[in-house]
Amino acid sequence: METAPARSSAGPLLAALLIAGCGADTNRADPRTALVGMSEAQLVLCVGAPQQTLAAGDRRYLVYHTNGVLHPGYLEGLPSQLPLLGTLPSSKSGTKVQCDATFVLRNGAVEAVNLRTDPPQDAAHTGEICTPLTRNCPPR
Questions:
Q1: 27-73+91-134 CATH, one of 1.20.58, 3.30.1490, 3.40.50, 3.30.1450
Q2: Alpha carbons 116 and 4: distance in angstroms, whole number
Q3: Rounded CA separation 64/99 (Å)
Q4: Type and span of the H or E element at 127
């Protein structure tokens, strides 16, 4: 009597790892709306000291810059070799994007948040690139 060949369980495991890595972090709120109403002290506590501070009339502007990667490689972060699978193919590293975030404050609280990316991105990708700036801010 012939026995069925043994099947490797590595395939489904690798597929699960890849699928898990594709999901967006939905726990992070878009900084354009999530921080409106926050006090300047709370903002500086969770985002850090701004790279630039400006004032005009009754408004203050706190300016931050950060770099991010849009669409990082699909195997990025995994070891280059896995047992039973050997060497994994590498993928491109994604698109490097700079985020400039300006927090507009009036009467000591965030009134608006302006985000700009270079190279320019649509609104959804701009939020994705700039969200890491506020990762330490408590949900509102």
A1: 3.30.1450
A2: 58
A3: 8
A4: helix 123-130
